[in-house]
Amino acid sequence: MSTIHDQAMNYVYQQVLQRLLSFFSRAERTALQLLIQRLVVAAGGMDNIGQFKVLVNQSGSRESSYTLALLRAAQLTVAGRAPATFQLRVATLRWSGDSPAALQNLHRSYSALFLYDDPRVELLMADNREVMPFDYRMPVTDEGREASRINLLLVGHCRTWLEIPELWDDAYLATAEYYSQIARWNNGVDAMISTETRSSQRHFLEGLNRALQRVTIAGPGLVHSGFEALFPLLDGLGVDFYRQLRPVDDQPAWRPEGEFEACRRTSFIDINDMVVGKLEDRLPLLGEFLGFEADDLALYQGEALFADPLTSAHVRGLYARFIEGRAYESGVDDYIQYALADMRRNEVADGICQHLMASFEAVRAPEHLRMQAEDFLLKSFDVNETQLACLLFAPFIDSGRGLERFLRNCHPGMLVAMPDLHRAMQGLHAPEQVLKWITEVSGLPVRLVTHLYAMGPVQLCAPVESASANPCSDETGTVTQAERSTVR
To answer: What global pTM score does this model have?
Structure first.
C-alpha cells in the first residue's frame, strides 16, 4: 500500500511540476537549472542533497510567492532526477498587521504547489514567539496581538518629537528575531533563500540598524554587504531584542522550549539573479496558477516592506497637523508624492504606478482615508488616534522631556497634574486618576512608561560605507536647537 501510495503521489508531484513549468518562459527554465546547480553546490554535491534543508520566508507578497514557486520547481525537478531532493522549510511570521488576503494568498499557493502533506516540506508559522504548524484559518492569538500592540508603541516612543515616526520600526526587530529563531528550530536549516534585491536587503538592514539603536542595542553599522551578513549579525545580538524595554518576565521565551539549536549553522543564498523578466510576465503564474490576489493599496510598497501605505499616509498627515502645524491633507500629499517618486526611482512599470495612484485617489478624501486608517490601526493593533498622537510627541523618553509640549498641544487640562505625572513615571506614588490617564492616553501600562522615562535621549548612528565617515548624529543637540526656534 505504501509503495502504491508513493507512486501515486510522485505522479501527482510530476503533474504539478509540468503545470508549473508551463508558466515559465525559456529564460526562467534556464534560470531554474542554474538555481538547481547552486543548491547542489551549497549542499556539497548531489549525494548530500537529501539532507540539505532550505528556509524560505513567506509574507504573502508577490515576490515571496514567486520565490516559493521557483524553489518548489527546483525541488520537484531534482526529485525526478535523483533518489532524494532537498527539504523545504516554508515559514511565516504572524503579525497583527497581516491582512486576511495575505493569508489566503499563502493557502492558495501552498495548495497549488501541493505543499500540504508532502514530507519533504515543513509549513510553519510563528506567533508570539511560538513556532507551530501553518494554519491560515487561525487568527493571531490574543497574546500575540497584545505583544504587537505594546511593542509597536514602545519602539515608536523611542525617538525625538521632531523626527517623523517610522511606525513599523518594531516590525524590523520582530522579523530579525524571527529569522534568528526559525533558522535554529528543530535541528535548524542549512540555508535561507531569498530573491530580494540588493537594495531591499540593504533597506532591511538599515531599518534594523535604526530600530536596534532605538531600543539601545548596538546596530549593525556597516550594512552594504547585504543578507550574507544577516545571520552573523543576529548571532551577536542575543535572543531578546526587547530586553531594554521590557522586563525579562514580561514576554514569553521562544517555544517549544528545548527545540532550538544553541549553535545556528545557516548561511544565506541570494538568488535574485535568478529572477528574469518583468513583473507583468509573472502575473499569469501568480494569478492563474498560485491564485495570488493583490490588495490594490499594497500593490507596490517599495522597500518599506512592513508599511501599509494608507496608514503611513495617515501618520504623515497627523504629523503635519500636530507637529508641523500644517493641514492634515498636506502631510498626506507629501506621502503620496514620496511614494510616487520612490516608484519612479525603482523603475516600476507605468501601469502599476497608475493603478496604485488610482487606488489611492479612491480614498484620498481626508475623511475617508482617515477613517480607514484609524479602523486598520484599531482592528489590527488596538491603537486609537489619541494614543497615536501621544506617540507622535514621544513625551515620556529622556525623563519626560517632551511632556509639557505634549500636554499644551493635546491635553492642556492636565498641565496642573504635571508633578504627579512625573512622579508616576518615576515609579513613585501618584493618584489613581493620573495612572489611569497615562495608560489610556499612551496605550501602555505605567510600568513600561517608566522604562521609557528612564531611557536617555535617542542618538542614532547611520549605517556608513567606510570606517572613515562619521555615522553618529547627536539628536539631543539637533532637537535643542529646533526647540529654540520652534517654541520661542
So the answer is: 0.89
